[in-house]
Amino acid sequence: xxxxxxxxxxxxxxxxxxxxxxxxxxxxxxxxxxxxxxxxxxxxxxxxxxxxxxxxxxxxxxxxxxxxxxxxxxxxxxxxxxxxxxxxxxxxxxxxxxxxxxxxxxxxxxxxxxxxxxxxxxxxxxxxxxxxxxxxxxxxxxxxxxxxxxxxxxxxxxxxxxxxxxxxxxxxxxxxxxxxxxxxxxxxxxxxxxxxxxxxxxxxxxxxxxxxxxxxxxxxxxxxxxxxxxxxxxxxxxxxxxxxxxxxxxxxxxxxxxxxxxxxxxxxxxx
Length: 271
Hints:
CATH topology of the largest domain: Alpha-Beta Plaits
Order of helices and strands: HEHHEEEEEEEHEHHEEHEEE
Largest sheet: 9 strands, mixed
Number of helices: 7
Structural class: alpha+beta
Shape: elongated
Number of strands: 14
């Protein structure tokens, strides 16, 4: 069930619906009375996004209430919440593997873009956005800071293990826009690495995606993340890169996800 309140409005609405810490009683205590349940169960209902105060979802068990109307969703469940995986369309300039605590003048962690307000409105996963979904996220697959495209953050140990243990066999598809037109000879050169690099790197398939008067879009497909590989190949062929975008990791694609926004990995999707 998708909650009718847009996640971007939750923080402001929840603040208005609750009282300062010095007033009233804990929301968890009120839920215990309404549901005739234990404190632990009350906290689970609240953290699960099932409790509303004056019509607004409040996810903090320690929030305090006085005479506000507290209601519990009829669909409320105490089943453990599944660990989620978030897919972000990373803009250029953000560090994929950097933790939010590493943010500084020269480091912009991509994970700081994972906010309720940047959740893609057209996400068809059916998963309700909860604050707990932004905790204990692990970045799974590196991508150059200058590149944009699909990056993955997960709470699910199975997804993390898949993307780390099988990293060398999962295919990545990226699009590189280079200046000028790419001749057949240049394309052959891109597909034929120097002898010194043939044993060290993965097999790379390069094809022309589209071409124009001023630039050409090249499709690169290879196994593993391989940061720097596209830059090395293009530099070796004398091509100047304008942009790089990752379109796919395994069977999961960027599709129509807008830059700077994220969506949930759907239950039926597999890398």
